[in-house]
From TrEMBL:
InterPro entries: DUF659, HATC_C_dom, RNaseH-like_sf
PANTHER family listed in its UniProt record: BED-TYPE DOMAIN-CONTAINING PROTEIN
Ranges for domain DUF659: 90-241
Pfam families cross-referenced by the UniProt entry: Dimer_Tnp_hAT, DUF659
Protein's name according to its UniProt entry: DUF659 domain-containing protein
Organism name: Triticum urartu
UniProt-annotated stretches for the region Disordered: 599-674
Residue ranges, compositional bias (Acidic residues): 618-657
SUPFAM superfamilies linked to this entry: Ribonuclease H-like
Domain HAT C-terminal dimerisation: 461-529
Length: 749
């Protein structure tokens, strides 16, 4: 390969007999940095544009979506690059070599610290197979424990017949690798080979405590498939016919998107849940479709001679067709919601799925009627799938141990549910612990001890089942252990299926020469790093959700009427300041008046002291000059004493009146300052937002805590007259008040 100079800004690259012109920045591509970056470059406003332009070239040249820049690992890489400065750039061989191995080791160590939860909560092993674009067949294994899912291992099954014997051997190896004592259940799809392999495994005495759980999402998907075969749901065929005609011609398809303002969701051949989404996309565009059917644009369509044109117009203009579509949506919506619940990775638990299915059946009964023929036909299909999913599993026992279901339905009182709970306890615990747990069931059934408290009943609707049992199950330790291992398990292998997108992205045609070991490392690193990033983002969201009373005083959302602190702030409202007035100046004026009244009180008290001292000096002078006549002296002294006492009593009355007046002024001023301090905060933030032409920026948690502490000090100090924060008894001067308010304003911005 030869590189020669071309025109300015490009390089001529010769590859064999062919040559191409590559446009790139030669200085940026250099692996060496000629000079150390200056501080002025960081302060230059054009630096951001230069950085963005350079990175956008990399994104656009490699077909990387711009939203990938929001990845926390990309931002972390940029920050560490800025910190390290002129460091040599890693090569492609290093990234796919030692750095891939380092990331794989880090992901493995990240998994190790969560293995301590396996003993308390147990794990669910999920597996599924996949065939890539290059014909490589892989079996994917995932581990689920306490709302966390991790990529564990991949087995190369290329050239192997995936019968039940082969799958049994592979699953047994993974079970031993994890530790069979930690595994509670194995979740796969409903394929006959996986079902037979798992049944063979759990029949062995060594693995008798493990159960096979069919995938709930796949099961509900099969329910929708069975219901879609009924003639009453035949409207799906007509909707598909209309969709095919509208997508048949490019100009007609484009005309449809313009008239209905969007696109139709097309159904998937194997995902029957998409049928509901397909029909719902029609229903959401109902008014637009009907307007389009009577418009001149539709009448002048060049494809009006085709049969699909007449059929589409008749259906989309008919009230009967739209009513039938709405009826089908009402019939399928309960099952669709149950499938969506089962398809969620972290929210769907073994204890919650039974509750969601019971709710779906109740909604279908209310929509179709409890005695209608169609409802009974639907229920035969649904109950058949549910019975197969609950047979020899922990699903019924998990529903009994679910705290929310217990307080609402108390399934323990039903014989079949109580029997399922007893069988689950005997399977998951050793005989001695199982006897203790069965004895403790009566306390849970009759709501004795902590189970009967109001706090436990209210927490059941808000807390996760495992958290609830950890908090309130201390009186029944054996049953608590069993409940935490059962209720925390997942019920679907959807996360395992989502991981195939990682294989599809990694093992593409340009990289079809990847060996199995490298492919396994790439997928493991990609999936576990993604899970780690999602977990960090959830922690940040949980921190933002924490309520700080001090932060409520400063947060811009405090001016929302739904904020609970507004009820306290609005107890004594007064007329607001005019738009032209400066709220901060009004606050400073009130503080000046408050300190002025304190100063007058102090000056008056000091004058009274000087007056009493002057009278006392005059008294001593009269005593020394009139010592000749004792009687006159005594009489004079008595008169002076009486006069002095009279003066003291008058001074005390005046001082008391001044103090009462001053205290009244202080109280009125304190209330006014408190209110106007709050108003000034909102006005300053709003005026700043108006100048910048955007909404107020939400403060970070640290900023809210810092600004909230200062605001509580200001408002609380003026209200209670206590300035112990400054280690003194007298309040600060007005200039210090101004400094505090200015500091508060700067922190908010």
């Amino acid at each position: 390969m030869r590189i020669g100079k071309g025109s300015v800004g490009d390089v001529r690259v010769a590859v064999g007999k062919k040559s191409i012109t590559a446009y790139f920045d030669k200085q940026l591509c250099s692996n060496k940095v000629s000079m150390q970056p200056k501080i002025s470059s960081a302060l230059d406003p054009n630096s951001r544009d230069a950085l963005g332009l350079a990175w956008s070239k990399f994104f656009h040249a490699n077909d990387i979506a711009g939203r990938k820049a929001d990845c926390p690992y990309f931002r972390a890489a940029l920050k560490i690059t800025q910190q390290l400065g002129p460091t040599p750039i890693p090569t492609a061989k290093e990234i796919d070599g030692k750095y891939l191995d380092a990331n794989y080791d880090e992901a493995t160590s990240f998994l190790q610290k969560f293995k301590q939860d396996w003993k308390n909560f147990g794990v669910t092993l999920m597996c599924d197979s996949w065939i890539g674009p290059t014909g490589m067949c892989l079996i994917n294994f995932m581990v689920y424990c306490n709302t966390r899912m991790f990529f564990l291992n991949t087995i190369d099954a290329s050239g192997q017949t995936q019968n039940s014997d082969f799958i049994y051997r592979q699953i047994e190896k993974v079970v031993e690798e994890i530790g069979h004592e930690h595994i509670v259940q194995i979740v796969t799809d409903n394929g006959s080979n996986y079902k037979k392999a798992c049944k063979t495994l759990i029949e062995e005495p060594k693995y008798s405590h493990i159960v096979w759980q069919p995938c709930a999402a796949h099961t509900v998907n099969l329910m929708l498939k069975d219901i879609a075969k009924f003639p009453e749901v035949d409207i799906v065929k007509s909707a598909k016919t209309i969709c095919r005609f509208l997508h048949k011609h490019n100009n007609l398809h484009d005309n449809m998107k313009k008239n209905i303002g969007g696109e139709l969701i097309r159904p998937n051949a194997t995902r029957f849940g998409t049928v509901f989404m397909f029909l719902e996309s029609y229903h959401l565009k109902k008014d637009k479709f009907r307007e389009w059917m009577v418009s001149q644009d539709w009448k002048e369509c060049q494809w009006s001679y085709e049969p699909g044109y007449v059929f589409s117009e008749e259906c989309l203009s008919s009230n009967v067709w739209w009513n039938a579509l709405e009826w089908v949506l009402g019939s399928l919506r309960p099952l669709y919601k149950a499938m969506r619940y089962a398809d969620t990775q972290k929210q769907c638990t073994l204890s919650g799925f039974k509750k969601s299915m019971m709710l779906a059946i109740q909604r279908m009964e209310a929509h179709l009627g409890p005695t209608s023929r169609l409802y009974l036909s639907f229920m035969r299909k649904v109950c058949k799938r549910i019975d197969a999913m609950e047979e020899d599993t922990f699903m019924v026992a998990a529903a009994v141990l679910d705290p929310y279901t217990h307080y609402s339905l108390n399934l323990c009182n039903h014989t079949n549910y109580a029997t399922a709970l007893t069988d689950a306890i005997a399977k998951i615990l050793d005989p001695k612990s199982a006897l203790s747990a069965i004895d403790e069931v009566s306390k849970f059934r009759e709501c004795q001890g902590r189970f009967g408290t109001r706090l436990a009943q209210e927490a059941a609707a808000r807390m996760e089942p495992t958290q609830w049992w950890f908090q309130f199950g201390g009186d029944v330790p054996a049953l608590q252990k069993c409940a935490m291992r059962i209720c925390s398990q997942c019920v679907s292998s959807s996360g395992c299926e989502r991981n195939w997108s990682a294989f599809a992205l990694v093992h593409t045609k340009p990289r079809n020469r990847l060996l199995y070991d490298k492919l396994h490392k790439l997928v493991s690193v990609r999936y576990n790093l993604k899970i780690r990033a999602e977990e960090d983002q959830e922690k940040e969201r949980d921190i933002d959700k924490e309520v700080d009373p001090s932060a409520l005083l400063i947060d811009t959302t405090m001016f929302d009427e739904t904020n609970p602190i507004m009820e306290w702030l609005n107890e004594d409202e007064e007329d607001p300041i005019l738009d032209g007035a400066d709220a901060a100046s009004a606050v400073f004026e009130k503080i000046r008046r408050l300190n002025s009244s304190r100063k007058d009180s102090y000056v008056g008290t000091k004058a009274n002291k000087k007056k009493r001292k002057r009278n006392h000096d005059e008294e001593n002078e009269y005593v020394e000059t009139d010592s000749e006549d004792d009687d006159n002296e005594n009489e004079y002294v008595d008169n002076e004493s009486e006069d002095d006492d009279g003066v003291s009593e008058d001074d005390e009355d005046d001082q008391q009146d001044q103090q009462e007046t001053q205290m009244q002024v202080e109280e009125e001023t304190q209330v006014q300052v408190e209110k106007e301090t709050q108003a000034s905060i909102g006005n300053l933030e709003t005026r700043r937002s108006d100048l910048l032409g955007r909404r107020p920026r939400k403060s970070t948690a640290s900023t809210r805590r810092f600004a909230g502490a200062w605001s509580m000090m200001l408002v609380g100090g003026l209200e209670h007259g206590s300035w112990s924060f400054f280690n003194g008894t007298r309040p600060p001067r007005p200039c210090f008040h101004g400094f505090l308010l200015e500091l508060l304003y700067v922190v908010m911005l």
